[in-house]
Amino acid sequence: MLVGLCSVKGSPGVTTTAVALAARWPGVDSILIEADPAGGDLAARFGLSSTPGLVSLAAAARRSHDPALLAEHSQALPGELRVVLGPLGAERAGAALEVLGARGLGLLRAVATDPESVVLVDAGRVDPTSPVVPLLRGADALLVLTRPQAEDLSHAATLLTVIPTWSRHPGLVLVGPGYPRAEVERELGIPVVATLPHDPRGANVLCGRSGGRGPRRSALGHAAARLANQIHTLLDPQVGSDTDQKIRTMTLGTESSAEPDYSPAATPAGLPAQRAPGIATGDTAIPGITTARHSSVGNGAVHR
User: Fold this and answer.
1) Which residue from 91, 188, 220, 281 puts its CA 20 to 30 A from 65's CA?
2) Which residues, in sequence order, are CB contacts of 141 under 8 Å at separation 6+?
3) Which residues contact 50 (CB under 8 A, 6 or more apart)?
């Protein structure tokens, strides 16, 4: 399966979340592609060379579509997590992504369709003209990370008009405190897949720094594991289609392992009580996005 992660503006922690998800993905081999058009961070964070990585993979994809290339051009982070590292600098990253978008999609899809593998694409900040978009089109799930603050949600709303055309299962991931989950879902018209806690110590380890708990012990790691299990259950046919009763239970949100909401129950102090500016108000969703017309990841269910 292929799972994309991206943001629209700001730095909600896309790369850190992608590493956490890859580290906690259940039951299959995971590989992370650092495909941020602005350039990669993981090589510097973990003291690695950016080669092999995204640039060498793009060069190899010009000559071959062998799925084994993805693993060959990856490196291991602590814990043996395989990552295709992005280069420093937007120019090299953008050029590599353009080649992969034109010549490397076949090998990515081949790995992603292997039932024993999951490919996660860290797309960084995106817009419809970004060179990483071809890698996201057709993703089994696409997660848009945002902080639940007025300005961040307003920017996220602009991307949500096109996200459903890129993936069958789009969803929001809220990072840190801010507007309540239910209000964000109502105003943006797209499910909130998960809320991730503000966990600097847990993020430190995922960023190659010491002084925190690893992803199997930190609050961020536990939240990432719940999110990974939720998406895996939805997308894996053997897991997600056991019985109609299982699907009904998940749809109603009564699954015993449902991910808890870290968002505050009421509008937090310091935020205005009114709705976030730039987000549609009333009973209708943002134009072009209606949960009745597209499938989305949300609360462990498929909303149609």
Assistant:
1) 91
2) 1, 3, 4, 167, 168, 169, 170, 171, 231, 234, 235, 297
3) 40, 43, 85, 86, 87, 88
Q: What angle do CA 114, 41, 63 make, to 5 degrees?
A: 45
**Which domain does 24 fall in, by range?**
2-303
pTM of the predicted model, to two decimals? 0.79
Nearest to 235 by CA among 136, 135, 168: 168
Q: Kindly tell me the burial class for residue 236, based on how many C-beta atoms sit within 10 Å of its own C-beta (0-12, 13-18, 19 or more).
A: middle
Q: How many domains, the chain? A: 1
pLDDT digits (tens, 9 = 90+) for 180-211: 999 999 988 888 999 999 888 888 888 878 76
Total number of residues shown for the chain: 304
Give pLDDT tens digits for 97-137: 999 999 999 999 999 999 999 999 999 999 999 999 999 99
Cβ atoms < 10 Å from Cβ of 7: 27
